[in-house]
Amino acid sequence: MDAKRADKLMTGVLYAVAGLIIIILASLLGYILWQGLPHISWHFLTSPAKSFEAGGGIGIQLFNSFYLLLLAMLISVPLSLGAGIYLAEYARNNWLTDVVRTAIEILSSLPSVVVGLFGFLVFVLQFQFGFSILSGALALTMFNLPLLTRNVEDALRSVSFDQREAGLALGLSRWETVTHIVIPSALPGIITGMILGAGRVFGEAAALIYTAGQSAPALNFGDWNPLHVASPLNIFRPAETLAVHIWKINSEGIQPDAAAVSAGASAVLIIAVLAFNLLARWLGNRIYRKVTAA
Amino acid sequence: MAKTKVITSENVKLHYGDFEALHGINLDFAEHEITALIGPSGCGKSTYLRCLNRMNDLIPTARVEGDIRLRGQDIYAPSQDVVQLRKSVGMVFQQPNPFPFSIYENVVYGLRLAGVKDRAVLDEAVETSLQQAAIWDEVKDKLHESALSLSGGQQQRVVIGRVLAVKPEVILMDEPTSALDPISSSQIENMLLALRHDYTIILVTHNMHQASRISDKTAFFLQGRLVEAAPTKQIFLNPAEKETEDYITGRFG
Ligand SMILES: Nc1ncnc2c1ncn2[C@@H]1O[C@H](COP(=O)(O)OP(=O)(O)OP(=O)(O)O)[C@@H](O)[C@H]1O
Ligand SMILES: [Mg+2]
């Protein structure tokens, strides 16, 4: 077979494979949305869940998901930036750096159930944080940190050595070169990674079941003092998230409309994650254009 | 009358690990002159040039010995502020390396970081530097577009403008025109001739024509040694060493 025909054939095969993947993903998404969208209403999105009767919503779970996400990102974004910058710009090539890198790689491939059980043993029991937002946020940080650090490091490394040399040769200090030249160039990649990480955290269930807990006590949305028990901001209350709620309804739900609630909640979850992804792209492109004046 | 020496270097040796890339270079640079460093590939021109603003500090295996002074100050002295040194001794590389920002931001970068906020001062610096770099007329209407959207020759001149904005005393150039077409190259050569009145320029080049056209002095390197350094005319018309003559007439290298 000559090169030209082989090329044509392989191009065809690649198109077919890509098409197949798109069809699978699209039908999965379509199915979930098709099943769930009819159940979504303002009432469904804002009212509390019901354990035994029909007509429950996902209001509290939805709030919990966002609040946990916010806390987890507040902890993991600065840490991963620090660690990523250190690894990409300052770490020497020695065995210690290798150990750190390997540790990060292993951590990032750890199944989230394991992270959840670790969180249960350490944060819930040892530190006595109980089933709480705090335990959940720390477990999510454990789950998210390695991936974010990798992402920051990779984004920084993708900036060519020329740029660093140019900065240093201009009489910028090392730190100025990193903060004013390397990071701005890498920013779109860093932000995209952060937002994709947020999407992953938002949909995470296994790491939260034994840390943030499986109950969603009623909240008083008029009380924003974080020290009060019923305050939405209290970080020591248990907080079932949307993803955990879906898991729970499907495994032990006894509401008459369990299937409908689960379908609706799944659709909401998918839409939120989809929104994160689109936001990531949009923001990444925008920032890149802004920084580079392209 | 002998001109003031801006940079003096004495017995400069450089090791990359165990490999000695420079075997003891003695070379001085006079104020407001263009000195061309020539020699075959791998003879150590870039290595030597990068000793002069301590860019070799970035290479962990590189070790410099000898004495290099900028206006009498030992630049390898422990008290030397490297950042300050690189502000006085600017550098232009072979590949144009603008930052991925707007043309304007590229030029004012050094100033902004030095704390200059006054818009009028920055605008003024951009215009002066880009005019000196002979690129102002081509970019004055698109200062806020990305520097990456320019051609290679334009990028290189913006990069030179960026170096000039920091107001260095000496400019090191490592084959600044070798990635460019003949027209861009001659634009840069003319610009260098004009810049010579205010700056001391050290230029690595493989282009004999360029060296003979714009430099006042030429230094010929061979395998980590400085073979000879003399006024350019003398090097090209009447070199003292046989090796220099062979190289210039293209008999090797
Ligand atoms: N980072 C490095 N580590 C080890 N050896 C190096 C390094 N950089 C350069 N060398 C060696 O030092 C010698 C001089 O290299 P240098 O780059 O200074 O040559 P050059 O004269 O600039 O050549 P060219 O004209 O090709 O740019 C060469 O033998 C080269 O292999
Ligand atoms: Mg070189």
TrEMBL record, chain A:
<dbReference type="InterPro" id="IPR000515">
    <property type="entry name" value="MetI-like"/>
</dbReference>
<feature type="transmembrane region" description="Helical">
    <location>
        <begin position="129"/>
        <end position="148"/>
    </location>
</feature>
<feature type="transmembrane region" description="Helical">
    <location>
        <begin position="12"/>
        <end position="34"/>
    </location>
</feature>
<dbReference type="InterPro" id="IPR005672">
    <property type="entry name" value="Phosphate_PstA"/>
</dbReference>
<dbReference type="GO" id="GO:0005315">
    <property type="term" value="F:phosphate transmembrane transporter activity"/>
</dbReference>
<feature type="transmembrane region" description="Helical">
    <location>
        <begin position="181"/>
        <end position="202"/>
    </location>
</feature>
<keyword id="KW-1003">Cell membrane</keyword>
<feature type="transmembrane region" description="Helical">
    <location>
        <begin position="258"/>
        <end position="280"/>
    </location>
</feature>
<dbReference type="Pfam" id="PF00528">
    <property type="entry name" value="BPD_transp_1"/>
</dbReference>
<feature type="domain" description="ABC transmembrane type-1">
    <location>
        <begin position="62"/>
        <end position="280"/>
    </location>
</feature>
<dbReference type="InterPro" id="IPR035906">
    <property type="entry name" value="MetI-like_sf"/>
</dbReference>
<protein>
    <recommendedName>
        <fullName>Phosphate transport system permease protein PstA</fullName>
    </recommendedName>
</protein>
<keyword id="KW-0812">Transmembrane</keyword>
<feature type="transmembrane region" description="Helical">
    <location>
        <begin position="66"/>
        <end position="87"/>
    </location>
</feature>
<dbReference type="GO" id="GO:0035435">
    <property type="term" value="P:phosphate ion transmembrane transport"/>
</dbReference>
<keyword id="KW-1133">Transmembrane helix</keyword>
<keyword id="KW-0472">Membrane</keyword>
<dbReference type="GO" id="GO:0005886">
    <property type="term" value="C:plasma membrane"/>
</dbReference>
<keyword id="KW-0813">Transport</keyword>
<feature type="transmembrane region" description="Helical">
    <location>
        <begin position="99"/>
        <end position="123"/>
    </location>
</feature>
<comment type="similarity">
    <text>Belongs to the binding-protein-dependent transport system permease family. CysTW subfamily.</text>
</comment>
TrEMBL record, chain B:
<feature type="domain" description="ABC transporter">
    <location>
        <begin position="7"/>
        <end position="248"/>
    </location>
</feature>
<dbReference type="GO" id="GO:0005315">
    <property type="term" value="F:phosphate transmembrane transporter activity"/>
</dbReference>
<dbReference type="InterPro" id="IPR005670">
    <property type="entry name" value="PstB-like"/>
</dbReference>
<dbReference type="InterPro" id="IPR003439">
    <property type="entry name" value="ABC_transporter-like_ATP-bd"/>
</dbReference>
<dbReference type="InterPro" id="IPR017871">
    <property type="entry name" value="ABC_transporter-like_CS"/>
</dbReference>
<dbReference type="Pfam" id="PF00005">
    <property type="entry name" value="ABC_tran"/>
</dbReference>
<protein>
    <submittedName>
        <fullName>ABC-type phosphate transport system, ATPase component</fullName>
    </submittedName>
</protein>
<dbReference type="InterPro" id="IPR027417">
    <property type="entry name" value="P-loop_NTPase"/>
</dbReference>
<keyword id="KW-0547">Nucleotide-binding</keyword>
<keyword id="KW-0592">Phosphate transport</keyword>
<dbReference type="InterPro" id="IPR003593">
    <property type="entry name" value="AAA+_ATPase"/>
</dbReference>
<dbReference type="GO" id="GO:0016887">
    <property type="term" value="F:ATP hydrolysis activity"/>
</dbReference>
<dbReference type="GO" id="GO:0005524">
    <property type="term" value="F:ATP binding"/>
</dbReference>
<dbReference type="GO" id="GO:0035435">
    <property type="term" value="P:phosphate ion transmembrane transport"/>
</dbReference>
<keyword id="KW-0813">Transport</keyword>
<keyword id="KW-0067">ATP-binding</keyword>
<dbReference type="GO" id="GO:0016020">
    <property type="term" value="C:membrane"/>
</dbReference>
